[in-house]
Amino acid sequence: VQLQASGGGLVQPGGSLRLSCVPSGIALDYYAIGWFRQVPLKERRFVARIRWSRSSTDYADSVKGRFTIPRDNAKNTVYLQMNSLKPEDTAVYYCARGSRWSSIEYEYDYWGQGTLVTVSS
Question: What is the pLDDT of residues 52-81, one digit of tens each?
Fold first, then answer.
């Protein structure tokens, strides 16, 4: 059982980056996949979520209009497309399976290992 998150790296302000999350060994049909992010000494915060079996999506206010969460069922992959990146987007990004349609961390039961995104010139 795992969620493999990847795609992090260093990008300049205003740039774009796409993260990938590949779940394996877990049921997904009635669940959601969410992205959260965390900076040192701060709690993990909700970024975006998508229902696996529908097109419903939801975003944190801080990323609306800049981030999207597309899904490729054929590749069993959920992405986080991040555009117009800002230095304050710097964080470790995690993907997780949501047992409910929620933006609350404890409603997510399986987590990936995290991938670091650094936005800096």
Answer: 888 799 999 999 999 999 998 888 899 999
